Automatic annotation (TrEMBL):
Superkingdom assignment: Eukaryota
Positions of the UniProt region annotated as Disordered: 1-33
Protein family according to the UniProt entry: Belongs to the peptidase S54 family.
Enzyme class (EC, first level): hydrolase
Protein name (Swiss-Prot/TrEMBL): RHOMBOID-like protein
Length: 322
């Protein structure tokens, strides 16, 4: 996205090269010390592991669903899809689930986001478990392909700890807003977490603005991608509130977790011999610290308000998250 290469030694390399050129005019300039071998690229493993976990969860969901073992009356007399091939894992008829998946009752029993059970019965664990459930094969593939496309690059840049936190907390934020706005249906899916990664990409661009080479091109590209994905929420029967909740959570978390040193900063562990200490820059700019504090405060305030204080009870139904 037009980002300059940056590591603990990045700014130092640029200044050492400048010093080498200056040495041609100043013979007595001190020789710069070698900066060590280049850092190896991080191999993403958490994102593929999360994808695998989602597929395993879906397989278990279909096993529990057991369409052939249910009464034909429960599926309108229709035959299960691929019943002879998949057996117990066969999909419900399209009249029951058009996304090639289980019944609403199965999803609810395994931890779908059910407003009434979360607020009135105190089953707040559903705010997390619903992120790992999917309404059907179409739903699962759409989310996991997007997750691989976005998540692998982010994990390679920032590591598995930060991206894992972003995924889980953004998924929770999406579930929270979904509970606020959708009180008559159940909701499942990882799209809240996915939109959290998109939100984090936007805040990462903003807080690390000085290290981008093509700033406005990168910003425009990212905004177009976000707008297209948010537009999916307009489609009927898609839980757009989970998208927005996840996006806002990820956007705030990005300021906290994905802050980078400003361009030209050198770690004191890698300062070469003879380097002019007057050229050493602070690790972060003032605006980065301000955004970090504001985002952290907003996150803490949002998480400390009990769900029951935000909403009032209603009913029940079915809704995938895009």
């Amino acid at each position: 996205m037009g980002k300059r290469a940056l590591s603990g030694n990045a700014g130092g390399s640029a200044d050492v090269e400048a010093g080498a050129r200056a040495q041609q005019h100043h013979p007595h300039h001190l020789q710069a010390a070698p900066l060590g071998p280049p850092e190896t690229a991080w191999v993403a493993w958490l994102v593929p592991a999360f994808v695998l976990a989602n597929f395993v969860a879906f397989a278990y969901t279909m096993y529990v669903n057991d369409c052939p073992g249910s009464s034909p009356a429960d599926r309108g007399g229709e035959r299960c899809i691929l019943q002879d091939t998949l057996g117990r894992f066969a999909f419900e008829p399209l009249v029951v689930n058009p996304l090639f998946g289980p019944t609403t009752q199965t999803l609810d029993s395994l931890g779908a986001l059910d407003y009434k059970k979360v607020v009135e019965e105190g089953e707040e664990w559903r705010l997390f478990t619903c992120v790992w459930l999917h309404a059907g094969v179409v739903h699962l593939l759409a989310n996991m392909l997007s997750f691989l496309f976005i998540g692998v690059r982010l994990e390679q840049e920032f590591g598995f700890v930060k991206i894992g936190m972003l995924y889980v907390i953004s998924g929770f934020g999406g579930s929270l807003l979904s509970s606020l706005s959708i009180q008559s249906k159940i909701s499942v899916g990882a799209s809240g977490a996915l939109f959290g990664l998109l939100g984090a990409m936007l805040s990462e661009l903003i807080t690390n603005w000085t290290i981008y080479a093509n700033k406005f091109a990168a910003l425009l590209t990212l905004l177009v991608i976000i707008a297209i994905n948010l537009a999916v929420g307009i489609i009927p029967h898609v839980d757009s509130s989970a998208h927005i909740g996840g996006f806002v959570s990820g956007f705030l978390l990005g300021f906290v977790l994905l802050i980078r040193p400003q361009f030209g900063w050198i770690s004191r562990n890698h300062i070469p011999a003879g380097y002019d200490m007057d050229l050493v820059k602070p690790k972060h700019k003032v605006y980065q610290y301000l955004l970090w504090i504001i985002a952290l405060v907003l996150l803490v305030i949002g998480r400390r308000i009990p769900l029951s204080k935000w909403v009032t009870p209603n009913g029940y139904g079915f809704l995938p998250r895009g």
